[in-house]
Amino acid sequence: MSDVLLTLDEVHKLVVDALRANGCNSENAAAVADTIRAAERDNCASHGIFRLPGYIASLQSGKVNGAASPVVRQLSPGVIQADGGGGFAPLALQQSRSALAEAARNNGIAALALINVHHFAALWAEVEPLAASGLVTMAFTTYKPAVVPFGAKDPLYGTNPMCFGWPRGDKPPMVFDQASAAMARGEVMIAARDGEMLPPGVGIDSDGLPTTNPSEILDGGALLAFGGHKGSAIALMIELLVAGLTGQDFSFEAAVTDNNDGGPPNGGELMLAIDPSRFGDSEGWLAHAETLFEKLNVMEGARLPGDRRYSSREENEANGISIPASLHETCKGFLT
Ligand code: NDP
User: Fold this and answer.
1) Ligand 1 pocket: which of 157, 176, 177, 238 to mutate (most atoms <8 Å of CB)?
2) Which of 14, 120, 291, 312 has the smallest number of Cβ neighbours within 10 A?
3) Phi, psi at residue 170, to the nearest 5°?
4) Spatial separation of the C-alpha atoms in residues 71 and 250, rounded to whole Å
């Protein structure tokens, strides 16, 4: 498959232009393009421009409001709600970030209930800015049924990612971001596109039998949770934290309301922000955590989560990124 080389600014412009040509206003288009640009910059292809056809499909079907204007409210001293108005999640996240940070600094801890949004991105992109500003940050979101509860044969949970960010002063924060599924669905889709088999333990086929064929997982099969019953419990927790707390759809409910246009369902997200200087070790917490990172970093074979992403930034900013020519053609087709 031949590739096309694009600068990250060209990626951003292509995404903005394609979204605007299909019903997004400039604010929403720019916010989505920011997350796609960040994914390409960090070598996270499964949440980069690869997602543009799904975003466009949701605009064309009328499922997503491309001109949504988020409304941010303070429900209590420590709880912010952002209603995304049926739009894509990035604009609502950008517009509620400062309210969440302020509530966390005022109270020591605060939560953001993001409702009525369509989330199609990697969570680290929204966690990293808060963690870089000095707040310990977590984020969770749901999807549609894609993951089988441990011991069952049918999917009930979404791929349900969780993300955790820890501030490191002048250094980039430590951020991990992982699906509850053994593998994110986007990675399975890329493997199917590229004709690659998966490692064992990722999913089952439509008969409930283990398979390493990504197409069998996507066509009537399902993903397994990572780590057996333990990942399955985390997927359950995320359903409750996101949908149980905020009144948004559980993944199984989103399957009923979604039109299956290829884009993300309507749903919610929960974020938690914690001010580490308010937990009794205001002078020492930063240096104390660094002693743990230093121990880990000298262990042969070990590395901090997030370091793979950070290591690619400078080069991709300078030299651009490659995408498959067929994907580039598809994206250019959205401009007319
Ligand atoms: P991975 O399994 O690729 O990585 C999970 C985490 O583990 C990352 O933080 C990664 O850091 C870290 N990691 C990987 N290898 C190592 C290692 N050898 N040592 C230390 N840390 C390591 O991610 P997933 O496939 O589970 O998820 C991919 C993305 O999909 C996530 O960003 C998630 O938010 C997104 N997603 C979004 C959904 C949505 O509905 N919006 C649904 C499901 C997933 P690093 O990046 O540095 O490698």
Assistant:
1) 177
2) 291
3) -75, -15
4) 22
Q: Tokens 């109270």 identify what position?
A: 107
CA proximity to 136, closest of 110, 106, 164, 97: 164
Determine if the pTM surpasses 0.70. yes
Q: Where are the domains of the chain?
A: 3-181+225-280+321-335
* Residue pLDDT, tens place only, 279-326: 999 999 999 999 999 999 999 999 999 999 999 999 999 999 999 999
Structure-token pair, residue 238: 């995320």
For ligand 1, whether the C-beta of 124 sits within 6 Å is yes
| Interval 135-168: pLDDT, tens | 999 999 999 999 999 999 899 999 999 999 999 9
- Ligand 1 atom with the smallest distance to the CA of 264 is 40
Out of 3.30.1370.60, 3.55.50.30, 2.40.50.140, 3.40.50.150, select the CATH number for domain 3-181+225-280+321-335: 3.30.1370.60
Q: Is 47 labeled as catalytic in the residue annotation?
A: yes
Among 47, 118, 119, 328, the one annotated catalytic = 47
pLDDT value, residue 1: 64
